[in-house]
Structure formats: structure tokens, C-alpha cells
Amino acid sequence: GVRRRRYFGGRTRAKLDVASPSIIREPEKCILCGKCVRVCEEVQSVGAIDFVGRGSRSRVGTAFDEGLNISSCVNCGQCTLACPTGALSPKEAPAARVATVETTCPYCGVGCGLELGVREDGRLALMADDVKQNLKQPGSAIRTSLVFAEGLPDD
Predict the structure, then answer these.
(1) 57: which of 53, 74, 85, 102 fits an S-S bond (Cβ 3.0–4.6 Å)?
(2) Would you tell me how many other CB atoms lie within 10 Å of the CB of residue 101?
(3) Listed residue (46, 44, 25, 37) closest to 128, CA to CA
(4) For residue 135, what are the contacts with CB-CB under 8 A and spacing of at least 6?
(5) What is this structure's pTM?
């Protein structure tokens, strides 16, 4: 049987990051699955969070261990959808949708159709779950949501 411990060390303590306007980061809940890192880098093309440190000291963090508000985070919320443990969570529940607007994706020349939800607070609702239903090219849809984030054009 096992007679001695091979690895020593205590639990690492990390402080709660609430500096972002829309995301709460609780590093102690993180299991280092990398889903948030992948969606931030590969889907969003932002790279606001990444693995920091080596070996048993590795963790998910931002550049220079600053808060998400100082990083290149665009507050899209994709990482909160990808996180299985709640280490990244939204500060508030999403507002209900009140309307739907059909538009064309401006990202490339293909001209994919988009169906954008409009929330009670006026913001657009186009997140990862919506993309599966609306588009074959999820990267385009998410970038479109960032393009339209300032509001809908008046017609």
C-alpha cells in the first residue's frame, strides 16, 4: 500500500476578482480544464485569459495578474458559459428578450443571416447558445455581436 506522501503542498489561496463590470472570477473554484481559455482565444480571438505559471503552480489568469477590467477582456461572457465549475460567472442574470431583429453578418462577404435578440435593457442577446441555432460559423456570429454591441442602427 501507500506508505508515504509523494507530493507536498497546501491549498493555494487566491483572491476573488470582482473588478470587471460583468464577470466575477473565483480562482479557487477553477479545475484548470482550459475551456474558458480556449473560447477566449479560439472563438473570440481576444486572449484576455490564459494559463499562468508552471507545473503545480499553474492557474488561469490575466496578463500580469491584473483584474479582468485591466486585461483585454471585452466582457462578452463566453468564458462564463464555458466554465463548468462557476469559477467564472456573470455578475447579474441576463435580462429577458423582448424582441428579435434579423440582420446580415458584416464579418465576411458570405452574408450569413443573423437573428439577434434584444433584451429589456437594450443590449443584444447573441451568445454561444444562440449561435448554435443561428449560424454555421460561430466565430462570425460572436464577432457580429461585438460589432453591434453599441446598439442597433436606426432604420
Answers:
(1) 53
(2) 14
(3) 44
(4) 105, 112, 114, 141
(5) 0.63
